[in-house]
Amino acid sequence: MSVLNSNVPEGPLKDKWTNLKNHIDLVNPANKRNIDVIVIGTGLAGGSASATLAELGYNVKAFCYQDSPRRAHSIAAQGGINAAKNYQGDGDSIYRLFYDTVKGGDYRSREANVYRLAEVSANIIDQCVAQGVPFARDYGGQLDNRSFGGVLVSRTFYAKGQTGQQLLLGAYSAMNRQISRGKIQMHNRHEMLDVVLVNGKARGIIARNLETGEIERHSAHAVVIASGGYGNVYYLSTNAMGSNVTASWKIHKKGAFFANPCYTQIHPTCIPRSGDYQSKLTLMSESLRNDGRIWVPKSKEDAIAIREGRKKPTELSEDERDYYLERRYPAFGNLVPRDVASRAAKERCDAGYGVNATGEAVYLDFKAAIERYGKEQCQIHGHKNPSEKEIIAEGEKVIEAKYGNLFQMYEKIVDENPYKTPMMIYPATHYTMGGVWVDYNLMTTIEGCYCIGEANFSDHGANRLGASALMQGLADGYFVLPYTIGKYLSNEIRTGEISTDSPEFEKAEQEVKEKINFFVNNKGSHSVDHYHKQLGKIMWDKCGMSRNAADLKLAIAEIKALREDFWKNVLVPGGADTTNPELEKAGRVADFLELGELFAKDALNREESCGGHFREESVVQDGEQKGEALRNDEEFAYVSAWEYTGEPSDAILHKEELEFNDIELKQRSYK
């Protein structure tokens, strides 16, 4: 087993990445065409990595379970992408982006990785503009910015409410160029089911063709995992329904440490759950918090009347509304970080102030913004003494220009006009900060196996700031991995083509086939979804927005029992030699069941509150910060990296101690 070594370069923080690039081993262009790299996933991280590695001359084999790379879940990202360009002249800088990210992650991220991310952020925007990404622009034609939670500057570049889609199309176009050149072999509708190690190095994968059922062997000199996060362990989440942990979990079971699994982000701005029949939840972009004000009724009587349909929210005066984020956190108001906003919404709803039928919703209201923008537009257009109707009409035009597609999506789902009636929102599982442990070079504890984007743990600590997911994915794919992978591959130029006719490939393929045959031959009594829903309920109730030791111990026991029942009684209809979505789900849920137990074990081990991990036993007891999350830096300023030994309950904890030399550790305050 590899030693847990972060491989962070020596020297001052601001010079680490530059010095590494100046001295890192490189691969001669003539040798790159003799080296193969497998990339699993074609979202922003995987797509940008595949395109860049192929552009450099490597032979890339890219895999996605979707029917096209452009259908990766990155397409769903709405609000924007951060970069420290200071276009607004409001005091932004590389250091401030670095500081905001470390503070937003509640001081549980690796300083060197975060500073590098801030450094390359500006390059990402230039790269995407060159690709034709249609970022929003101001009246003078300059790239526009808006603000996101947890910061005091405007650094988020955006394309209406479809930033992820536009960025993914940019990466997809770059991939297509390399596909047409023959430098990328694209394997659509293929799912990685195991990694193959030869002499301790990642040398290939076993994949299933999801259309024919054929089990295939693919070899390479290095394997890159870019398969996204594990939010669907909760069953209901904002993730695409196909998003899964399988690729990450398979390399974990072969020796890659899994880091901080309990760090999961609950996004505060989602459309509330409407019933048990739902299979996923829908995100409303955090960008809406720039102009929307979050509130609940001040009196429980009004909240009950709204829930029962006897009152409308528009009937409540300003004095009857509790803008609780503005009240509690005056410095940041509605733009506090996601973990803070989510817990505050839960607290208000748990206290009886929720506003939908289930009591699990708060309002996101644009009335004040519409009036403010309307008055401004009337002033600009020279309207003297405009009527209220004219002001509202002008204001709605501005809101439509900024958020129109989001408002349209909300109205289609909820059947209410958000221009006239406040949106209802509630927190939901969204992003996972935990993931496969990687060093500074993005290599896992398996030699030759890399992990990038949301699939790794590296940049966000215990909480991700809004608009930083797209930033990390593209930074890893375009600007970090293409450098760092060269150090490893420079020692592979004499290796030659990797054969798939080896005992290691044979054994891995046989194990995959045995599991598939078990699923299709096991005549159980419960569907895969039956188990996934039960797992999701355990996770949400006991490992959700708040956690405590008693519930976490129960969760571990309940998940273990559920997993045992799954392997006895799961029913997978259909066969293995054809398209079979239920078979795909069975393998993914089997991995979720193991991950869920490790998740709860990690949460139980971390006896502190930090970011998305809120332990009820660890809160500030008095003073201005009473009730807020309380970290324990003396005992828990480390990355928890878990080694697989056969059962999640037997996983071995390895600690990467975190060092903070450029930022002072202190309790977060957004007041």
From TrEMBL:
Membrane topology annotation: Peripheral membrane protein
Keyword presence, Transport: yes
EC number, as in UniProt: 1.3.5.1
Domain Fumarate reductase/succinate dehydrogenase flavoprotein-like C-terminal: 532-670
Source organism of this protein record: Portibacter lacus
Gene3D superfamilies in the cross-refs: FAD/NAD(P)-binding domain, Fumarate reductase/succinate dehydrogenase flavoprotein-like, C-terminal domain, Succinate dehydrogenase/fumarate reductase flavoprotein, catalytic domain
GO molecular function: electron transfer activity; flavin adenine dinucleotide binding; succinate dehydrogenase (quinone) activity
Pfam families: FAD_binding_2, Succ_DH_flav_C
Phosphoprotein among keywords: no
Active site location: R338 (proton acceptor)
Enzyme class: oxidoreductase
Cofactor(s) listed in the protein's UniProt record: FAD
Protein name per its UniProtKB record: succinate dehydrogenase
GO-annotated biological processes: anaerobic respiration
Main location (coarse class): membrane
Family: Belongs to the FAD-dependent oxidoreductase 2 family. FRD/SDH subfamily.
Protein location: Cell membrane
GO cellular component: plasma membrane
Catalytic activity, as annotated: a quinone + succinate = fumarate + a quinol
UniProt keyword annotations, A-Z: Cell membrane, Electron transport, FAD, Flavoprotein, Membrane, Oxidoreductase, Transport
Residue span, FAD-dependent oxidoreductase 2 FAD-binding domain: 36-470
